[in-house]
Hints:
Elements: E1 23-24, E2 27-33, E3 44-50, E4 55-59, E5 64-72, E6 74-79, E7 82-87, E8 91-94, E9 100-103, E10 110-118
Antiparallel strand pairs: 1-4, 2-3, 3-10, 4-9, 5-8, 5-10, 6-7, 6-9
Protein name: Cupin domain-containing protein
Pfam families: Cupin_2
InterPro entries: Cupin_2, GPI/OXD
Amino acid sequence: MTPARDAVLREMAEVLWEESPGHHGGALSKILVAAGEGGSRVIDYRISSYEPRAHVALHQHEAKEQIYHFLQGEGLLTLGERRVVVRKDSYVFIPPGVPHALHNTGLANLVFLVITAPVVP
């Protein structure tokens, strides 16, 4: 039997904002649960806040799935060749290999949750 793991309870205020590589102009995230740390084996869970004009460059993940769940603001999401407007209550599932980018095209911060997990064969 696998040994029990401890649950982790934290406050978001304990976590610093950071700007990851490829993110520009105030595209900040708080990594709340990191894969391999903080009690998770595979899940990366973060909240992101992009200032107006902030963006993440076009990129893709070969072995990861992602979900973006938008909480406030509005922006333009690129998914392959498509561009779609996202705003509060929009969410998207991004499978591995799909090129994607995100720009805050609104007047206020674009705030969203990001859940990332590796593809299980």
